[in-house]
Amino acid sequence: MDQFLQTLMGALAIGSLYALIALGYTMVYGILKFINFAHSDVVVLGAWGSLVFARWAERTAGWSQTPWYLGGVVLIAAMVLCGTVGFLVERLAYKPLRRAPRINVLITAIGVSLFLQNTGQLEAVFGTRPASIPRLVGDRTIAQIGLVKIEMLDVVGLFTALSFMLGLDWLVFRTKIGRAMRAVSFNPQTAGLMGVPVDRVISFTFVLGSMLAATGGFLWALKYSQVNQPADTGWTLLGLKAFVAAVVGGIGNVRGAMLGGLAIGLLEQFGSAYLSSSLSDVYVFSLLIVVLLFRPSGILGSTAVEKV
Amino acid sequence: MRTLRSRLVRAGLALAGVAALASPACGRQPTETIKIGHYASLTGSEATFGKSTDNGIRLAVDEVNAKGGVTIAGKTYKIELVSDDTEGKPEKAGTVVTKLITKDKVKAVLGEVASSVSLQGAPVCQAYGVPMITPSSTNYTVTQKGNMIFRVCFIDPFQGFACAKFAKDELKLTKAAILFDQAAAYSVGLKDEFIKHFKSMGGTIVSEQAYTKGASDFNAQLTRIRETNPEVIFIPGYYSDVAKISIQARKLGMTMPLLGGDGWDSEELAKNAGEAIDGCFYSNHYAPDQPTEAIQTFVSKYQQRFGGIPDGLAALGYDAANVLFDAMARAKSHSGKDLRDAIAATKNFKAVTGTITINDQRDAVKPAVIVERKGGKWAFRAAIEPQR
After folding, report:
1. Residue of B87, B220, B243 with shortest CB distance to A273
2. Are B122 and B109 in contact (CB under 8 A)?
3. Which terminus of chain A is more exposed, N or C, with fewer CB under 10 A?
4. What is the domain count for chain A?
5. DSSP state letters, A294-307
6. Is A246 contained in some domain?
7. How far is A23 from chain B (nearest CA, A)?
8. Where are the domains of chain B?
């Protein structure tokens, strides 16, 4: 029982992070029909941005105890940073290729990814060593069931991730800009003729996706405290799993990405807890194969569902 | 246009001037230069490994050059070090070593730290007939890549033995769990040897869990380990992963000591893990606080040059370079074959990390030390002699 609960906690925590990151992949795919390979590097930027900012704030302010609001401030700073970078990437790298074949955009995305990785590795930027983020959320245990401790940090993480996802869902399905996003995703030309400012909507989507990536990176850094260097293989794997989550849920589908993220988190954690820990990545990618074989459009993906 | 041309002319003159200054300086000195190569993870997640090793080698090179260089068969040469980055990626090792040998024309190669990278670099050195000394790759298959490949560190079978012996005889523990990196040859080798020796000494392995390098979440593995109540967890991984594992284990309420190998050896571990690593142990090639003369001189020289306490990898880099220079002085010529024979003949060489004798398998035979995290410092705890 202890093991089950502990694994469930872990699975939900990590699954919600996958979901946050998967949303970025799925939104960009929904609108531009290409996979933004640079997305996982924006997550890295979010994690490192939070780390650098939190350290800087602690150093300059010299608090004896970290104020409770610092976490929120750091998160907003990371979101602004990543949103700006996401905006610039779209403007400078992808927009000039709007009419180019999709493969060109795809290759450009890989180029952007490499550029961000290697810039991050410069000593003047983040460097090549792992670093640890200051404690922004108190190290408190909220409840304890048997051996299972429910940590403040996990609850805050889960709550932040879920509220952001609900917020996004509301934004996409209940607001005007959300309707514009769905229109562009359905058919950009027609949406343009109807007076939807297509370029602005695309920019907005990128900024939104990058902000969610920033949140993912921030929560990741908080959860694991040590942040690996920007080009670490762990980040690539994280990006790949989030991408698998998007595909499993149905790429282009916002709710699908959330579902896919949680599904992958559960599968990975329960698989390694009850079957074998040496195969934890195998479960994830096997699920991808199974989904592609039997339901290529993903769990929630189908032509009838509105895409974003 | 004219100004551009005159600028170009001026630049050309300046270049010629530099060349003129440089060339007679080379011509006057009777000594020629011999290049040695170093391939290392200068960036990447094990960047501290490569940088420490490179510092150690640099210190040795500067010392030998300050003494006038190395004399090979009556002729004196200055040593020039060419270091190149593998980013700690096995797939880059082949390219980097090939470049060092064919483009930079190095006479000998030092490196790498990680066994999985050395395993890719070694066949290249073997194929080109250039001797290679790895300072710190402990996986035993590395030197089996060919007769050109040497090492100055102990091997995993011994390190696994040292950890098992320490856990069983020093700590008097009998129930161990294991968490290892299944993607690293080093980690798998160490795990196998630990299990073999710990069992033969009468201990039991209650759980064996795996992770893959770069993983961040160890919740599932640690929860399974917790179910089995081990007295010690053996984690033969690298420091960046160990920091995360230790923090997550403590969060799960697991207080038993963690034990590891020389992959833990980096200042970053304690910096990132903090209190989580208190009361933990790892086996290493040397301990900077061990009161022998060789170690204390090396530590003070290193501190003067680079600041900071040298880790085991810096000491091994220094030793690897010095073993090479010692061999060069005994070699008949600087050809690959003669250098190889000279390195193979190394006997009782007094190095920082112990007295080095190269055996028939081209491995160094020497003791290991166990260090303990105590009062915010890594302190020497025990020395484990090799099995004879």
Report:
1. B220
2. no
3. N
4. 1
5. H-TT-SS--TTS--
6. no
7. 21
8. 32-154+290-357, 157-284+370-384
CA pair distance A213, B249, nearest whole angstrom: 27
Query: Do the domains B32-154+290-357 and B157-284+370-384 sit in the same CATH topology, yes or no?
Result: yes
Residue among A140, A278, A282, A283 with most chain B CBs within 10 A, to mutate: A278
For residue A210, the enclosing domain spans 24-233
Band of the pLDDT at B27, cuts 50, 70, 90? very low
ipTM rounded to 2 decimals:
0.78
Residues A229, B45: C-beta atoms closer than 8 Å = yes
Q: What is the largest CA-CA distance in chain A?
A: 61
Residue A234 sits at the chain B interface (C-beta within 8 Å): yes
Of B47, B211, B226, the CB nearest to A277: B211
Hey, how many other C-beta atoms are within 10 angstroms of the C-beta on A300? 19
pLDDT band (50, 70, 90) for residue B10: low
Q: Does B214 sit within 8 Å of A233, measured CB to CB?
A: yes
Local confidence band at A127 (pLDDT 50, 70, 90 cut-offs): confident
CB contact under 8 A, B272 and A151: no
Query: Is residue A177 in a domain?
Result: yes
Q: Which CATH class is domain B32-154+290-357?
A: alpha beta
Helices assigned H by DSSP within chain B:
2-28, 47-66, 90-102, 115-128, 156-165, 185-200, 219-227, 239-251, 267-273, 293-306, 312-330, 336-344
Chain A CB contacts of B219 below 8 Å: 6-7, 9-10, 14, 269
Which CATH number is correct for B157-284+370-384, 3.40.50.720, 3.40.50.2300, 3.10.129.10, 1.10.357.10? 3.40.50.2300
